[in-house]
Design brief:
The protein is built from four helices and seven strands. The protein is of the alpha+beta class. A seven-stranded antiparallel beta sheet has the order 2-1-5-6-7-4-3, with helices on both faces.
């Protein structure tokens, strides 16, 4: 699928997500979905992507799989350059910090997600790169009484 088609598909999912308190149909109908907004590494522009996620305690975990494509998605490069992101889950919008999981933590999170969503195990077999696993932890605001 061309990037133009992906962009249009993402735009429609984002609209549906925001119009329906985080609920969407189609591929994501029975899967946990969040919206991740990053800042463009080159442009500085805000970019929002719908992503499946895994809840891990008070963190959200996303996977830079691109369904097993040979390169990482642009949102991954953006958060490496600017780890302060915004996460939308349901009707909640929260500031978060993105951290790339490594070692045992990465392996545990990927295996746990693949156990619930077997297609993710298949994605890893389609590529020679290790699919990055990113944790999103709520970032405290300046007001100590609020997140």
């Amino acid at each position: 699928m061309s990037s133009r088609n992906w962009n249009e598909q993402n735009r429609l999912v984002i609209e549906e997500f925001r119009a329906n308190a985080g609920k969407v149909g189609g591929y994501f109908a029975d899967k946990p979905l969040l919206l991740l907004t990053t800042t463009g590494a080159r442009t500085g522009a805000s970019r929002t992507n719908p992503l499946g996620y895994l809840a891990d305690g008070d963190r959200y975990v996303v996977f830079a799989s691109v369904i097993g494509e040979p390169t990482n998605p642009s949102w991954y490069h953006n958060l490496l350059a600017n780890p302060d992101v915004t996460v939308e889950v349901g009707i909640e919008v929260l500031p978060a910090t993105a951290v790339v999981a490594t070692g045992d933590d990465r392996a545990r999170l990927y295996e746990r997600h693949a156990a619930h969503h077997p297609q993710w195990a298949i994605y890893q077999t389609r590529t020679t790169r290790q699919i990055p696993v990113i944790t999103l932890a709520r970032r405290r605001t300046r007001d100590p009484g609020r997140w």
